């Protein structure tokens, strides 16, 4: 799919990968829709980008999702691309995973992307065209202590994407999955884990982290290519990426 003039809906657009992708897409001539809970941030970004729409939305709330999607249709008349980017991490040993926290993580990382997909697919079916990009995690390509809760939600997203790609192909809808590597965003600050541990992990990872802008460019390439999946994970960490 071409980026220019496409209506691109991005969740988790208030910072990090989401905000960087919105900026990169807007520079390429796309009409971007910013979804996030932090209203002030997305409104400020939308003002900077120009032909953009900011919609306050908690993607774990189906009613808010439906209202947001309708707002996009009302404004632009169509949705060409959905980028399911909103998510959160958790670091805990299996025996220490807090079950209520894990349920909340499942809601955000797996159920919310499914709900978003279900909300936009009818419009894409009518158009006989559409692209869905699900942002997974490079951590699903290997096994790390403390990652079970987070990677199990993202592994579920991987399978959801693969099956959706198979089911929706005949309707002209392409579903793709991106596996970013460690990225310099607010991810570690919002990680559900002991704060000092998260800060230490963030500091150790700083030397190998990718910028959100690098991830954004890979997302745009995936929209254009329609490939099933792509990754930014170095070969040493289980991926296929080479500097």
Automatic annotation (TrEMBL):
UniProt-listed Enzyme Commission number(s): 1.-.-.-
Coiled coil: none
UniProt keyword annotation of Oxidoreductase present: yes
Pfam families (alphabetical): adh_short
EC top class, as a word: oxidoreductase
GO cellular component entries: membrane
Any one GO molecular-function label of the UniProt entry: oxidoreductase activity
UniProt keyword tRNA-binding present: no
Ketoreductase domain residues: 6-181
Keywords tagged on the record: Oxidoreductase
Superkingdom as given in the UniProt entry: Bacteria
Family: Belongs to the short-chain dehydrogenases/reductases (SDR) family.
Cross-referenced PANTHER family: DEHYDROGENASE/REDUCTASE SDR FAMILY MEMBER 7B (PTHR44196), DEHYDROGENASE_REDUCTASE SDR FAMILY MEMBER 7B (PTHR44196:SF1)
Protein's recorded name: SDR family oxidoreductase
Species assigned in the record: Rouxiella sp. WC2420
């Amino acid at each position: 799919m071409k980026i220019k003039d496409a209506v691109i809906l991005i969740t988790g657009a208030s910072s990090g990968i989401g905000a960087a992708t919105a900026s990169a897409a807007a520079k390429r001539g796309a009409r971007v829709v910013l979804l996030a809970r932090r209203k002030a941030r997305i409104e400020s970004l939308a003002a900077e980008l120009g032909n953009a729409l900011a919609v306050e939305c908690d993607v774990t709330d189906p009613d808010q999702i439906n209202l947001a999607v309708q707002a996009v249709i009302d404004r632009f008349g169509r949705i060409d691309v959905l980028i399911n980017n909103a998510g959160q991490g958790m670091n805990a040993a299996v025996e220490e995973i807090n079950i209520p926290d894990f349920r909340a993580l499942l809601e955000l990382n797996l159920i919310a992307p499914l709900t978003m997909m279900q909300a936009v697919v009818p419009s894409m079916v009518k158009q006989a065209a559409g692209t869905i990009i699900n942002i997974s995690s490079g951590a699903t390509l290997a096994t790390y202590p403390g990652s079970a809760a987070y990677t199990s939600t993202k592994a579920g997203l991987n399978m959801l994407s693969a099956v959706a790609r198979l089911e929706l192909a005949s309707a002209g809808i392409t579903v793709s999955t991106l596996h970013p590597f460690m990225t310099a965003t607010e991810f570690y600050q919002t990680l559900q884990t002991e704060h000092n541990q998260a800060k230490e992990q963030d500091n150790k990872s700083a030397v190998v982290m990718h910028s959100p802008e690098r991830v954004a460019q890979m997302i745009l390439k995936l929209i254009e290519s329609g490939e099933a999946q792509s990754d930014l994970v170095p070969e040493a960490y289980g991926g296929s990426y080479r500097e």
